[in-house]
Every structure is written in structure tokens, then in C-alpha cells.
Amino acid sequence: MLLGYLQKLNAARESRRAAVTVTELDTGRSTLFLEGDTTDETVASAVESALRTGKSGIVEIGDRKVFVNVYLPPPRIIVIGAVHISQALAGMAAIAGFDLTIIDPRSAFATPERFGETRLVAEWPEDALKDTPLDAYTALAAVTHDPKIDDFPLKAALEAGCFYVGALGSRKTHSARVERLVRLGVDENAIARIHAPIGLDIRASSPAEIAVAILADIIQALRTRDVNTGQRGVE
């Protein structure tokens, strides 16, 4: 691989930005695309598929074969609230390949005894998120039911462009949440991105079932997220 490509890939990795290389197998000619780049129509479908699935492989485009190699930042989940749902979600997320962090200022809840080796931050989200910045490869799930704890990270997640933002609570609870976020200056179109009630509607009732619904919703959001583009790839 060319040194210039390696430098761009390393920079993309540092900034948690996805990248794709498309290499023509007959000529060895490669093109590098960063997520947000414009692809020409001939390879656009292959590049977008790779960005969504995270899978590399040989693809036939017309009468030629190309190798599509994708580099995705590790997706992560930030959970606001060290509750029973979080306990179940932590184990499931690890199996599904997500890094997961739980933030809760209530130190009586955020304990290793309850969560084992899960990364816990017993601080207010306003402080904790300074060291755990949100980005487009982060999902945020707010599950405390406490506006004093949940509202700030929801606002921050929408501003950061997290691929998933969800909040626990009934529709009535969410209506009050929407009013609070509007007063905090959050745009109503952005607020509409919040998955509330959180999780896919599978009629979940127990904490473990709700965790399944949340994780499924997060995976669906990750695999169907917008990968629209802006500038041409680098040849």
C-alpha cells in the first residue's frame, strides 16, 4: 500500500472516520474513499455496502473484479444509567462486538459488584463525556428516567451526530423530555431522531428483554445509517 494511503488511513483511524479502498485486481490500481467522500457511480454501491456492513471482499463491477477493503472504527455504546437494563445490555453488547461504557453519577449503582469488568464512570455525564467524546460511531442509550442525568447527554449525542440516540420512557414521558430539550435550544428536527420509547417494539417487558430490543435497534441503526458523500476519493 502506498505511503500516502497509510497516512490517510492512520489519520482516519485517529479521528474515528471510516475508510474504504477499492483495488482493481487486473491492474492493481487503487482508490481510497473516506466516509463522506463522493464515489463514482460504478463503485458507489460496493463502497456504501462495505461502509454499512463492515465486510471486505471481492466484488464484480461490470466486467471487472475489484477488492473492496473497509476500515471501520469500532462501534461503541454509551449507556447513561447503571440500572438492571444496563446489566443485561453490557453482556449482550460485548458478544455483538460493541465497546460499552456505563455512566452514572450514582456511585451506589455504578459498582464493579453489579457490572463486573464493564467500564463504569461514576460521574455526571457533563464531566464524563469530556473524556469519552461522542461521534458518528457511537450509540447513546439514556435509561435512568431522571432528567437531571439523561437530558445533557441526549443533547450532546444529537449535536455530535451519534448514529443512534435512544431514551427510556413512555410517550408521555418523552413529550415532557421534548419540551425540556427545546428549552435547552435543541432543534426539533434533531429531537425527532431520538428513539423513544427506546428499542425495537418486540413487546419487551423484563430488563433483559428490553436490553435485547435496545441492542437490536442499535444494530439496525448502524447497518442502515446514512453514508452519503461529499468529495471525490483519493487516487
TrEMBL record:
Superkingdom of origin: Bacteria
InterPro entries documented for this protein: MoCofactor_Util/Proc (IPR052698), XdhC_Rossmann_dom (IPR027051)
Signal peptide limits: none
Domain annotation XdhC Rossmann: ranges: 77-218
PANTHER family (alphabetical): ALDEHYDE OXIDOREDUCTASE MOLYBDENUM COFACTOR ASSEMBLY PROTEIN, MOLYBDENUM COFACTOR INSERTION CHAPERONE PAOD
Name used for this protein in its record: Xanthine dehydrogenase accessory factor
